[in-house]
Amino acid sequence: MTTRRDILLASAALPLMGGAVAVAGGAQAGGAAPAPAVVSGVRRPALDRLPQRIAFGSCAEGAVPQPIWEAVLAADPDLFIFLGDNIYGDTREPAVLSAKYAQFAAQPGFKRLRDRVPVLATWDDHDYGEDDAGADYPMKEVSQRIFCDFWGEPADSPRRTRDGIYDAVEFSAGGRRLQLLLPDLRFNRTPIRMLDLGGKKYDDWTAELERAGRPVPGPYERNPDPAATMLGERQWQWLESQLARPADLRILASSLQVVADFPGWEAWINYAEDHQRLLQALRDRRADGLFCISGDTHYAEASVLRTNAPYPLWDFTSSGLTETWPVLPPNARRVGESFREPNFGLLQLDWSDPAAVRVTAQVRDVAGAVRIEQRLDTRDLRVVR
Question: Is this prediction's pTM over 0.85?
Fold first, then answer.
C-alpha cells in the first residue's frame, strides 16, 4: 500500500524525515516495556477563564529545525492545541516512540512554548505509531500510555483507560462556556478502503493526472459500509452526550479534515456513516455554535459544508508546523486558496457580545503573516428550530 510517507520520501520533499534517534539501551522488541517515561512538562490550561487567542497546528518532524515557534509565541496565544503528528514515531518499538518524544521535547521552540503557553493535544497516525494506522495497530495501548505520560495526563485521567485518548475540555466564566472536543480517530478505526486504480501503481496513476493538469488525490476512497467507523460505538455515544451539553461555542479539534469532500487521503468523508452521524448529532442535540479545526494534510485551507448541514459547518486546517506537500488534492468545499508552506492556526475569540461569540480564524506563516482569514459569528451557527 502506498502511504503519504512513501510519497514524501520518494519525492525527497523531506530529506531528513525518518532520521535515526538515539535509543538508550538499544531498540526493544515490540510489546516490550518502553524506555522510561518521557514527560514534556507542559502546563494544563485554567478552566475558569475563557480563552481569547487559541493557536493550533499539526505535523512537526522532530529531526528538522522548527522555526515556526517564534511566530507562534509572537502571536501571544493563551492556549495551543496540538492536532496530531506531533512527532513522527512510525514504529512498533516502544523505546523508539519514547525517543521520538524526547527528541521533540528537546526542540528549543517547543521548550519556550511549554514554558509560556498551556497546551492540549490529540494524536494522529504518526504519534499513534504507524502511517495511516487504525485499530489493528498492535501496540496501541502502550502508545496510549506513552502519549498520556508525555502530555501530562494525571494518573486518574480517563484518557489512560478509555478505548482511545478522546477527551472534552470545558472553559467557563461569567456564565459563558467554551467546549473543546478532541476525538480519537485511530484507536477504533476500521481498515481504510483503497481506490481502484485500474491495476496501475499509485505513482504512475498520479503522474498521468499531473500531466493532464488535474488535481491529484490520495489512494483512498469512501467506505459505504455502515459498520465502517473511525470512532467506534463507545466513543460515538460519548461524543453525542457531549454535544447535548450547553455551550456558547464549540470547537471540534480533529486530527483529520472533517469537511473536505474528497482529498483521497484520510478524512471523515472516507467513512460515510461517521460523517453523516456527526451532522445528525448536531441536529438532534441542537449543538449550536460548532466549527472544526484539523491537521494532517501538510497544507492549510478553510472548508465549509452548507448543503444538508444543520448550519454552515466550517473546518480550518493547519498543517504542517514543519511539513509541506508537493501537490494539492481536490476539495470542492475549499474556500479561497490553500497555503502550502509551514504554518499554524490562530483563533481570536471575541466574547464581548453577550448574545454571540465572534471568531476570527487565521492561518499564519513562519514569519507570522496572515495567509488565510475567515470571520464567524455564532448567530450564524444555529440549528433551525
Answer: yes
